[in-house]
Amino acid sequence: MNTFQPMKNFITHLRGYVLIVVSIPFISGCFGVAAVGVGAGALMLSDRRASESYVTDEGIELRANNRLGENYGSNVHVNVTSYNRMVLLTGEVPSAEIKASVEKLISGVPNVKSISNELAIAGPSSLGGRSNDTYLTSKVKARFVDAKQFSAHHVKVVTEAGVVFLLGLVTQTEADAAADIARTTGGVQKVVRVFEIISPEEARAIDGQTKQSTPPTQH
Known about the structure:
Elements (H helix, E strand, L loop, with lengths): L4 H42 L4 H22 L4 E7 L2 E8 L2 H12 L6 E4 L2 E2 L5 H21 L8 E5 L2 E8 L1 H12 L6 E8 L2 H14 L6
């Protein structure tokens, strides 16, 4: 009888077990990435921007933030929001000179069409202030949904120091409704429109294409 055979079988089984255990995180990671991809795809389909514009905006924000980090580090608090290649700058910088230099730096990012420089000349906002801004953004978005006057997906909300900035490809009627809802939301100090206005005909055409591109719901 071969006394080494049981040990050999045990090692073989052990290796198989280890392989399965090691594989589980990898497989889970794949599912996680897939889920993120599906979520991003759903957001893209509900957005009025063309898919390439959506991706371009993500690239603009990434490159802009990299440049800010390389040039200013933690000396400034600047938020970069790109919508249809129109960039909104919010946050705080220590001087008018730096405010201008930040705008010049970001204007050099590829694909940027225009810049709305809303940077305040002040010290960086506190953690409490930023948390309140996040809360106000959520509050405004929730009121958009409750009002049912337009699709909340069509309006991007950015809040800084209690000031709400509204972006999106919207009709004049949608812009007015969104601004009125944001303006009457408790805690909002001011509303700034950074919309790109399109005609009702353009909106219907874009929304029609979006519906056609949306895959059927799986049950």
